[in-house]
Write a structure and sequence with these properties.
12 helices
Length: 593
Amino acid sequence: MSKNFWPDTQRVEHAGFTVDIARAAIRNVTYQGAQIIDLLYTAIRPWDWSTLDPDEHSEVVEISGENCLVTITDLFAGSIQGKTVLTLQPNGKFLIDYQLTGLGKFEIQRWGVCFCLHTGDWMGSTVSASGNTYSLLKEISPQRVVDGVTQGLFPASNDMHFVAPDKRSLKVLSTGKVLEAEDQRNWTDNTYKIYSGSLAEARPFVIEKGMKWEQRVEFEVTPPATSIPDGSKIIARDIPSLPRIGVQFNGEPLLPSDDLEKALFILDIDHIRVNEESLTAQKIATISKSGLALEAALLSSNDGADLVREVEHLSARVPAGSRLLIHRQGRQIVQESDLPKNKTLNSYIPGSDAYLVDLHREKFEFGDAVSYSMVPTVHSSDPETIFKTLDTQKESIEFVQKFIASQVSVSPITFSTRGNPETGHLRENRINFAQPGMAEQIKELSAAAWTLGSVFALASAGAYSGTWHELFGEHGLIYNEGSAIKFSPTFHALSALGAHHAHEITIATSLDGSWVAFEDRESRKMVVASQRPWVVEITPKVLAGYKSIQSLHANECEKASQIMDWWSYAEINPLLGDIPLSITPFEILLLRG
């Protein structure tokens, strides 16, 4: 367990337990130094399955005898009051009492206590439930469908007993609601989620004024039998090159043509993605002039011969050598057999414009190549959990390579879901971010660090291609602030990487993932990015042979936002390679040998 905790949390320690309390969830429930539960929270899902955020929220921590009580009170939509009481007890036990009180009429798809188990800790566990035995598989599990109804990983039960390979264990007893499980790696989360209620239950639930719904969940835990690994251990390996890296260009350019050409030169990326409905002759000319590949993304409402004609029409519009991502609206799959015979120099790549879960809900045939998207905020909103999804990006790609298609393109990777993926995912809506507050963080230094962490994940898995955020717009790498044009920290992070011309690469990180590094051995350049909101140390071993250092840290972001080519401006300092290097929160470093 780290002695550090994220700044949006309050740490509470009692009777061998440590918990980090935040607005959206209790995080990092550890016992005797070992994490047992990644996330513990109570959730209300309204009609569209979004997360209902409270209008009012309060937390009170108090000691009562030998117990510690954490009382959380929420008011939702002016119609529901939620009260959650976490009681930490001696001897490895704790419980949750949850009560919903109706203040008015409100329809709910799901409510109750949820807890998430980190796949890195619980992969391969046995699960005993209602007298039967199951397991949490290493491979990502598809959603289970019985008679057309989506189910949990195993039948719902009031009791579950998890035992991990390292002998950490968790006994759970729920009164008032059954429990069911799903593999959230399907959406690039890092957990197995155990939620209250069954997907087979009739919905919606309707709470009315004066009604009270209650649930109690009792937990008993034991720590692992083995020692906890040293998180500072360095993991490094050589790769021939980085994935093909690109960004999206669906909005209008904010720069005149000469400056746009310069910005694309500085970014030094492989390709630009443009949604078919946003594709113009001017964008095609700009991309071609800059020597970049075009990734054209079709989201069709057609199938059969109509889809074939649509693909052939798009293929005729784009330059030879373009990559065409062929998807269907409503999160429907396009398979290899749906595509026309390719007689061009372009690539036709089937798959989904949404999530991994869609690629293996049935047995589909994609051929040698497939594409799908990733977003860290389908189920998560806090910064710590968003960073934790990075490990699952690697795991997701490796799963696809093994079971679905060998060549994997992930496009796009964004902070917010696009359009309306839960209720149709329509062509005309996908340019819009469904969670503008999540998309807004592109302007923060943490977004730059996360993006380099995402590049690291794709590189570690050997992905063919990755396409990240929008290039222009309110939530783009380049954005307006009044009459001024600003450059986000993520723009500068990608330009430091110089991915298109980077060969003979060594990638490195620590076992706890607190930093990532990309070394271009050919040009003797290394980019390092902190993945934590506290100071992280890099050992001299990583820095050997490097002589100078430039950085982008929090205090420089405002100045850097006004400069297109930050790394030509940033101060160059000598590097003393015989002492550890301290990196400030989410800092980006550029080292040269």
